[in-house]
């Protein structure tokens, strides 16, 4: 883990240097970017193991950069910002941040947070099997099985239905907004929120058909949740 590559996207050179120095002392490799455009280019080319991301950046702000990273995959992201309002923190977490640190901070805290997030997320995007309640999801084989009294039953899902289910299964119990599911699961399309409703409706019907109708539920005015309920 200590050889992990950390991308630091921070427009204040002194802060970027401090973070990089402390991470390097712990054996991490680091690279820095002073704005979101360069940061996203580094992310695409270098595929870092974790991103330390400032919110207030020139051009694209940190929220936009975080959303772009999430459309690409599940790279862990720690937000570092002077904004301490709960709404700012919730916004970052809603988009998909893994942690959040407020300036001014102790650099040792950044190191500790990086280590904690890497421990928690290592292997998250490696194609490992996901299990939520009665569901077993194989990301590599694009296969979903539901436990039943007679044994596992394989669901016949479209590619988009699978993407939605697998994305939600990575964070069971979390409420996903429709727009978030569009960004994560249909990034190349012109999909609208109602398109997600259609895919989720089909998913719920297929789950109900094998006795797993209580797993995927709607949250009025917000979106959808996949509950870790054992049937």
TrEMBL record:
Keywords recorded for this protein, A-Z: DNA-binding, Phosphoprotein, Transcription, Transcription regulation, Two-component regulatory system
Domain Response regulatory: 5-118
DNA-binding region: 127-228
Modification sites for 4-aspartylphosphate: 54
Domain spans labelled OmpR/PhoB-type: 127-228
Pfam families: Response_reg, Trans_reg_C
GO BP field: regulation of DNA-templated transcription
Any one GO MF annotation of this record: transcription cis-regulatory region binding
InterPro entries found in the cross-reference section: CheY-like_superfamily, OmpR/PhoB-type_DNA-bd, Sig_transdc_resp-reg_C-effctor, Sig_transdc_resp-reg_receiver, WalR-like, WH-like_DNA-bd_sf
GO cellular component: cytosol; protein-DNA complex
PANTHER family: REGULATOR OF RPOS, TRANSCRIPTIONAL REGULATORY PROTEIN BAER
Name of the protein this chain belongs to: Response regulator
Organism: Stappia indica
